[in-house]
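Lecture 7 notes. Example A: sequence first, then its structure tokens.
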Amino acid sequence: MNKLLIIAILVTATSCVPKKTVHAPVAETDTIPSRLPPVADSIRIPDDPTIVIAPATERPITAAIPDCIQKMISDISNDPVQNPPRKIFSYTYKGQIVYYLTSVCCDQYSNLYNDRCELLGHPDGGFTGRGDGKFPNFQKEAINEKLVWADKRK
């Protein structure tokens, strides 16, 4: 009886301890998820029940995305759903990280932003489909494509 009481006290005491999360490294080719998986898929360290090793896809992604891009995502999420739904990709282009926002339809320009959300230009779209002409080789020179966000609303 005493052993059961001690076990119950230990379980209660350790379940109230805050848990630290350690995130696994992510390969450079991984896409950034728009929704995180449940913590149930995580691994607990037997020697230290306060440490949880979370899968790489569960890592906080907001730190990697500039605040202005997060605001852009929030603004688009508050607008009516577009057809096709909007997406934001990141690329490495001429040594810098850029963000590509898909166009809302047909002859509309797509937008290319730097990490401060300054509009750099329009690599494609418009009546010709070739954008504004400032980035004629963007599709050939842009590397490391990563999906940052996709509007999943219907």
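Example B, a different protein, same format:
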Amino acid sequence: MSRSPIQTEESIRISEVTKRTGITSRTLRYWEEIGLLESIEGPVGTERRYHPDILDLISTVRTLQSSLGFSLTEIKALVDTDRTFARVKSLLRAEPTEQERKEALLHASEVNRALISRLVDRNQAINRLLEERLKKQARLEELIKETS
């Protein structure tokens, strides 16, 4: 289970997240279990709480699933890349040494390249499927004209 240190200023309860997004608490807990979401750490036995930004992330996850057909593994790769960028950005604000800066940027670059590679592979597979479907559609239209 991934939990961030408690932040009391801005947090929303899991019940509020479910109400506002239509996602079940079971799904939210599963997404948290696989590392897709992070809850805010609170006292043991209390209802899970999330940063309000979780609502945007859930919306993004749903769009990637429904509109683009991404799996949770693919979505997690995207989220992890964004988290890496956020950590690097935070590190750069803290005035790191040149070596720390270079290592952080190189790591972020490697993570992003891996994601780009996955997206390119996925795009190529989609393009191959689209080409096959376009050829079949063209053949169907030829057959329809022949029967008219």
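Note on Example B: The first helix runs from residue 14 to 21. The chain has a mean pLDDT of 91.
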